[in-house]
């Protein structure tokens, strides 16, 4: 019986020690992130795809005549 009480008190004390540590600190703020490179690539890709589709439709239209 004494072993059970001692063991229970040990685990209760251990749980308080674990809870007292708290959560880890948040990571530092990374600051401003440049988004120009990715957006420029997407815009250029969209323009190229649009030009391709325009050329393809124009060629299809001429072939059907």
Q: What can you tell me about this protein's structure?
A:
The protein has 65 residues and is mainly alpha-helical. It has a domain at 38-65. It is 74% helix and 0% strand. It is built from 2 helices and no strands. It has helices at 2-20, 36-64. It is rod-shaped and about 100 Å long. The mean pLDDT is 81.
Short characterization:
The protein has 65 residues and is mainly α.
- Quote the distance from N terminus to C terminus: 100 Å
With helices defined by DSSP (H or I, 4 residues minimum), what is the helix count?
A: 2
| Rg from alpha-carbon coordinates | 33 Å
Helicity level, as a percent range?
Answer: over 70%
Mean pLDDT: 81
Q: SSE string, helix = H, strand = E?
A: HH
- Sheet-strand content, in percent, reads under 5%
Low-confidence stretches: none
Task: Explain the layout of strands and helices.
Layout: H1 2-20, H2 36-64
Descriptive key words:
65 residues, 2 helices, mainly alpha
